[in-house]
Amino acid sequence: MKRRLLAALLDYCVVLGWLAILAAIAVPLSFAGLTPWDHHQDLIAFLASVLPVWLYLTVTEAGAAGATWGKRRTGLRVVGPRGQRAHPARIAVRNAVKLVPWQLAHLGVAALASKPDSGTLVGPDSAWLPISATYTLLGLTLALTFIRSDHAALHDLIAGTRVHAVETVANAGGTGSAVTAGTPPPADRLTDRTSARRPGTARRHHVQDDQAE
Predict the structure, then answer these.
(1) Phi, psi of 179 (to 5 degrees)
(2) pTM beyond 0.85
(3) 3 state DSSP class of 116
(4) If 0-12 CB within 10 Å is exposed, 13-18 middle and 19+ buried, where does residue 35 land?
(5) Torsion sign (Cα): 89, 95, 97, 103
(6) DSSP secondary structure string for all residues of 142-207
(7) What is the tens place of the pLDDT at every residue in 5-33?
(8) Could you say which DSSP state residue 74 is in?
(9) Alpha carbons 161 and 101: distance in angstroms, whole number
(10) Which residues, at least 6 apart from 62, have a Cβ–Cβ distance to it below 8 Å?
(11) What is the pLDDT of residues 120-153, one digit of tens each?
(12) 138: CB partners within 8 A, 6+ apart
């Protein structure tokens, strides 16, 4: 659980870096009186922040590593329901559900901060609806993550994904392969290990064969 929280913190640093770039662009434009985001603030917030973050999460987790930068740094990966590599569609759904609370917060804040007739999806009188939904979904996600033994969050349950630790196991040829923690090693490795632990087994078989002859 600690590794997953650390991974989230590292990925938030990536998100904050992107938001800092947006601020570096928006602040000078605002001082110059160029504020095209006065209308449809909720849509602009989605296109400028939520969509790029969704792309970052989805592209990295759907890749060969199955992990964002934060997950790779902490030895985690997103897998499918049976521990296999997750299908890109599952990854896309997972991250869409994951970012729903953030977009709902945008809807509520934009409704409260925008001017009349600004074209926001939610009006000021209804701003409490998306804001309440934001806190409800966040609370449910955190509760599931801490209560469940597999620490599956709401977006994992909906998409059919899990976040597992990754271990590097050396095979007989001396190379390494990444496997999900808790996955039993292949049968040939078990046989090699069993034979190595019982060196007298082969000799006993040879003696029995000689006696039989």
Answers:
(1) -130, 155
(2) no
(3) coil
(4) exposed
(5) negative
(6) HHHHHHSTT---HHHHHHT-EEEEEEEEE-TTS-EEEEETTPPPPHHHHHHHHHHH-THHHHHHHH
(7) 999 999 999 999 999 999 999 889 888 87
(8) T
(9) 19
(10) 86, 88, 91, 92
(11) 888 888 889 999 999 999 999 999 999 998 889 9
(12) 101
Closest CA to 57 of 90, 19, 22: 90
Q: Centre a 10 Å sphere on the Cβ of residue 40 and count the other Cβ atoms it contains.
A: 17
CB atoms within 10 A of CB 51: 13
Which residues, 6 or more positions from 171, have their beta carbon under 8 angstroms from its beta carbon?
A: 177, 189
Q: Phi first, then psi: give them for residue 151, nearest 5 degrees.
A: 60, 30
Residue 34 to residue 185: CA distance in whole angstroms: 61
C-alpha distances (whole Å) from 110 to each of 22, 115, 189 are 17, 9, 58
Closest C-alpha to 4, from 164, 166, 183, 149: 164
As a whole number of angstroms, the distance between CA 163 and CA 61 comes to 11
Give the start-to-end residue ranges of the domains of the chain.
Answer: 2-166, 186-213
Coil vs helix vs strand at 63: coil
